[in-house]
Description:
The structure is a single chain. 45% of the residues lie in helices and 15% in strands. Strand 4, helix 10 (211-227) and strand 5 (231-238) form a beta-alpha-beta unit. The protein has three domains: 3-48, Transferase, Pyrimidine Nucleoside Phosphorylase, Chain A, domain 3 (Up-down Bundle), CATH 1.20.970; 79-155 and 174-331, Pyrimidine Nucleoside Phosphorylase, Chain A, domain 2 (3-Layer(aba) Sandwich); 335-424, Aldehyde Oxidoreductase, domain 3 (Alpha-Beta Complex), CATH 3.90.1170. It is globular. The strands form four sheets. It has a four-stranded mixed beta sheet, with helices on both faces. It has a four-stranded antiparallel beta sheet with strand order 6-9-11-7. Strands 10-8-12 form a three-stranded antiparallel beta sheet. By secondary structure, it is an alpha/beta fold.
Amino acid sequence: MNPVEIIKKKRNGEVLTEEDIFYFVSHYVKGEIPDYQKSALLMTIYFRGLNDSETLSFVKAFINSGKRVDLSHIMKPKIDKHSTGGVGDKTSIILAPLIACFDIVVPMMSGRGLGHTGGTLDKLESIPGFNVHLSIAEFVKNLEKLNVSMIGQTDDLTPADKMIYALRDVTATVENVGLITASITSKKIAEGSEGIVFDVKVGNGSTLPTYEKSKELASKLLKTSRDFGQDAIAVLTDMRSPLGYSIGNWTEIKECIEIMNPALTTSPLSADLIEVTLFLAGAMLKLAGKCNTIDEGIKQAGEKLSCGECFKKFLALVEMQGGDSSVILSPDNYPAAKYVDKITSESGGYLEKLDALTFGLAAVNLGCGRKSVVDKIDYSASILLEKKIGDETSKGDVICRILGETAEKVESTKKLLISGIKVSKSKPQKLSRIIEVID
């Protein structure tokens, strides 16, 4: 087969066969098809889309490029959660240990940041020593011991997706329903989960900003998962503004630590982050058969979170994967960024807009994400919100602080952020982050 003919076929609007897709993916993984040809195919897919059969073929090709984790010997429910990506979205850090407290196995294989959206792996690697590069055997052993492990894609698990995932990030081909579906579901099937809760973001801070596209993605994720025998629930959540008070890597870990152990902070806890986290936890518990409704699960999860058991499980997870638990117990001892600046309100009123896309792009500029595959993350860089949508402001009040490694990065980030902030005289309605459940 000829890679150029496959690219041309998709460019011309034809449907790729399973043979076309298997050939292209397998030969790309072997290094026999270069990045520039794979990038060309990704761009044609971005514009032409993938139908259901093509999407399924990509899922199969990704899975078949590596091994699958066998967890059949662990006689417990195996439930995971996946977010389609957002700004300040850190729910996985709390959810994984929280659900594991219910004697449910959480085999969480996560990804890195894509475009302006953050990645769970980047956040976890901000913890000194935390190892996300475990072998399948180590991953299974951790699940047997603690019910939870959080890793990245190994060389054995969906390696094709791992390679293409990084390429999509730097070729502006992230926002495609078929590619997103194939990437997410292949990982979740390969990792050994039996059920999956999809947190599908809606708004310009997500990978698919419109409600219609996000709902289309949710439906495709459910259909594809069920085609492979997984039970699934999709939750549409609002991503028009950043989730929580922090945007960065270590600072998002710190915010999660404070929610899991409020004794470590005197600052207010983020109501919207807690709302989304507990709702997703309720959906996971429902899939696991631990409750009859999501509302029942929310109550159970809230009790487990507040009693401190979740924090102990997270601490054990960090230590099990080689992380330095001292920074978890004393998060203020983490190395601080060198330069700090702030944005203040120019008038009194109410905070009407914190544009998630603007904040996401600004965070990448600051060093919280990557502009190219080889870029290194600055784990201490962060944007810290002091106001949320609907909060009252007076002239001179701090809206957010910017922390970075150079004065130039902080200053350029500040200029970017100003355009994404708006204060108005009328108080906007505070809405729930939960938009819709698709079950």
